[in-house]
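In this supplementary section we document a worked example of the pipeline. Step one takes a protein sequence of length 505 as its only input; no multiple sequence alignment statistics are reported here. Step two produces a three-dimensional model, which step three serialises into structure tokens for compact storage. The input and output of this example are shown verbatim.
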Amino acid sequence: QWHVHDQVFTADEATDAPFEVPFDAVFQGPGGQTMTVPGFYNGDRDWVLRFSPPTPGTWSYETRSSLPGLNGHRGIYDATPNTTENGPLVVHPEDPTRFARADGTPCNVLAFEADWLFALDYDNPDTAPQTDHFLGLLAENGINQVVTTVYSYDVDWDKDPRLARYPEHELGGRDHIYPFLGSNPEPDFSSLNVTFFQRMDRMVALMQKHGIDAHLMIYVWNKLVAWPPAESAADNRYFDYIIKRYQAYPNVIWDVSKEALNNVRCSEPYGVERIERIRRLDAYGRLVTVHDYGFCKRNTETVDFISWQNWGATIYSSTLGAVAEFPDKPIFNIEHGGYEESPYVVFEGGYTDPQVCLRRNYLIQFAGAYSTYYWQGAAWNVLIHNPFQQSPHFSTPRFEYYRHLQQFFTDYPTEKFKPYRVENRTGYCLFDGDRTYLLYVPKENVQISTYGNKRSGQKNATTQWFNTLTGEYSEVRDDVFTFFKSPWGDSADAILIRKINRPQP
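The serialised model returned by step three reads:
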């Protein structure tokens, strides 16, 4: 169950348009389940039927194709229950504002953007050790989703001159990497570069190995890519091929385009039509979104969750408003303008201080949404896959901050808490609806008060603090006070955990 299996079929017949050859298989599964799974061309005269059983049990299939060599093949998969993975990301069946896994396990999505990940091990024909190492670092530190482009070429802003000393960290502008024939400077849209996608298979499979979802942005308009004309045969070939090739991976999430409407090539009807193509081709029903808040807002019925790019100083209150506006969709802030500093200045956005970037992630989560962590040393054309193995003078990412964040929301699961307004002179509170209050306290707050609130201000309570920088918990104490000071003072943002004791019978 949920493991990806490739069945290769070879056609003796030659064809001038192998990507257009109709080829799929009808699967019959337990309980009367039926799936029509598309196959895809994989070079030479080989086609692949890629399948991952969504449920345990016996799955039989029969292939269909206009090529006799691909038609009428039959087979059976006996799928055993998966005891190590929780399945694809889904919208929580009991709370449409939250995510879960297919087996019902809640999932606090914490993403990381790495647009050029496809290029990291491209020149290694056999394996992808750098990608494996980097994804391992992310997974160890609580990242469970990587937002990435299928392909990007280069950036249009000035590059840090210090990059010239470390060319291995610069992945932009590599002409030999291209999903079409030719190169980005001299494209040939007559066909696709199968090698490109064979290399990308490794990236998506390694993400699954590390428990990371692959949030695939199929297009990007601001990374100097030479794309074929919209809705041309070449455009449709590229788009459909990605859906056919990667839908079997249970960790895949579809995103039509990064910053989708920031280019005249991508109209709103075009975005809707692309989503309709996904729905027709994807036998597994993977989640779909568009990296554009306006599009999602105007087309809520077409997307599974709302992607939002918001750099505002009032990120908490803005997120509260978005969560209230869409009570039947998860809200995912895909870019909040906090781009943590790295050894190179890549793109500074609105905030670069690691603690400020961390705070913005917490504020988004405390408002009831999901967030994305950006480190400039890996988000775009610069990708330092082994930051802790660099020269001592290199600044390193604060990955551990996000490990602590995920640990906290494992101890206090987000699906059990909702944003709650407390009249305590602080704006950031989560409440489980029973007796536990979580109050996020910026380090500039000398003290906070729960005075005046009938429930959170009750004196029969216990309190404990959590340090967002170290992951440390203070001792639990019985507390009769209504004013509280963090034990770490102004050195770190902290979270006050206040539990109202049950009255004695």
